[in-house]
């Protein structure tokens, strides 16, 4: 769990929620629009700084100024996304909440990618059995140990090479899905679907091997 | 063996049978879901499949936690 937010920058930038009609000016033109865009950017920068600060422990070697640069970049990209997708806003939440999520997404992805920038990602599925944490732990019971063997077999025989690659990297190596998407030239949604399908195939395999209770 | 007895690594490998939405749909619904949660409304019933996705997707789960935390911070600012 992330520590409580005590970043003075975030607190100082907090804007009173207030009325939200200002966002309608994003559809306007001229000075009204410019003012609304500036306000939007301030809101997104606040959210991006909040996220980068929350995840700062994953960037131990990154300076405060570089972290702030990441937040600025995230806010810039988020502003473009929000402006491009204004018509998607249906009022199912407040505009502020809707806009925040774009900045949080951009900032979170930038932090994850920065944290993994210099780390190797094992994309050779054959190596999965070498991973020390992939097997049963000392306090696992006999049934878990037996199930591990069935799962190992399932990973070997029931999955496609690509499914094996994604499952091993995302689940056993803990590679964030955005990082994996970047290295595989894919996107988060497509990779998660592949992971989901791989898990379903594994569950079917273990059920067929006599462990239907694990398939829940 | 029940799901609760499974080794944590096995749980992450096998995932859940529960129906879930994907990352794009999760992002599309996240603002509404979090506001429902904070209002004490039955978010899981009103946005089916999102909770199951958060269990299976650490990245979306992080962003859900952050949006919730930021809104909570706003509410006391």
Topology diagram in text:
The complex is a heterodimer of chains A (216) and B (77).
Chain A: H1 8-13, H2 30-54, H3 64-84, H4 95-115, H5 142-157, H6 161-172, H7 177-184, H8 188-208
Chain B: H1 8-14, H2 23-38, H3 43-46, H4 50-56, H5 58-76
Helix pairs in contact in B: 2-5, 4-5
Features:
heterodimer; A: 216 residues; mainly alpha; Rna Polymerase Sigma Factor, Chain: A; Arc Repressor Mutant, subunit A; 2 domains; 8 helices; 60% helix; elongated; disordered N terminus; B: 77 residues; globular
Quick gist of this model?
The complex is a heterodimer of chains A (216) and B (77). Chain A has helices spanning 8-13, 30-54, 64-84, 95-115, 142-157, 161-172, 177-184, 188-208. Chain A has 216 residues and is an all-alpha fold.
Task: Explain how this protein is built.
The complex is a heterodimer of chains A (216) and B (77). Chain A is mainly α and 216 residues long. Chain A is 60% helix and 0% strand. Chain A has eight helices and no strands. The relative contact order of chain A is 0.09. Chain A has helices spanning 8-13, 30-54, 64-84, 95-115, 142-157, 161-172, 177-184, 188-208. Chain A folds into two domains: 8-115, Orthogonal Bundle (Rna Polymerase Sigma Factor, Chain: A), CATH 1.10.1740; 125-214, Arc Repressor Mutant, subunit A (Orthogonal Bundle). Chain B is built from five helices and no strands. By secondary structure, chain B is mostly helical. Chain B has helices at residues 8-14, 23-38, 43-46, 50-56, 58-76. The termini of chain B are far apart. The chains are: A mainly alpha (216), B mainly alpha (77). The interface between A and B is large, with 59 and 40 residues.
């Amino acid at each position: 769990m992330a520590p409580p937010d005590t970043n003075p920058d975030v607190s100082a930038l907090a804007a009173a929620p207030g009325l939200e009609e200002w966002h309608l000016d994003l559809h306007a033109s001229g000075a009204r629009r410019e003012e609304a865009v500036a306000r939007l950017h301030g809101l997104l920068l606040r959210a991006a700084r909040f996220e980068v600060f929350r995840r700062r422990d994953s960037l131990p070697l990154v300076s405060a100024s570089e972290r702030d640069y990441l937040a600025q970049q995230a806010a810039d990209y988020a502003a473009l996304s929000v402006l491009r997708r204004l018509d998607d806003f249906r009022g199912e939440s407040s505009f502020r909440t809707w806009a925040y999520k774009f900045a949080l997404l951009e900032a979170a992805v930038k932090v994850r990618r920065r944290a993994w920038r210099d780390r190797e990602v094992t994309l050779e599925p054959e190596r999965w059995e070498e991973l020390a944490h992939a097997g049963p732990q000392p306090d696992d019971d006999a049934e878990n140990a037996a199930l591990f063997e069935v799962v190992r077999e399932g990973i070997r025989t029931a999955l496609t090479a690509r499914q094996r690659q994604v499952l091993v990297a995302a689940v056993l190596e803990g590679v964030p899905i955005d990082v994996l998407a970047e290295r595989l030239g894919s996107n988060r949604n497509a990779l998660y679907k592949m992971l989901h399908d791989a898990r379903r195939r594994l569950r079917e395999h273990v059920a067929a091997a006599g462990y239907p209770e694990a398939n829940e | 063996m029940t799901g609760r007895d499974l080794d944590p690594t096995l749980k992450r490998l096998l995932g859940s049978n529960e129906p879930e939405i994907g990352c794009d749909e999760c992002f599309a619904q996240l603002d509404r879901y979090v506001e429902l949660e904070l209002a004490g409304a039955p978010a899981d019933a009103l946005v089916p499949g999102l909770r199951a996705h958060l269990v299976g997707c650490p990245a979306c789960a992080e962003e859900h936690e952050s949006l919730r935390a930021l809104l909570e911070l706003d509410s006391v600012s």
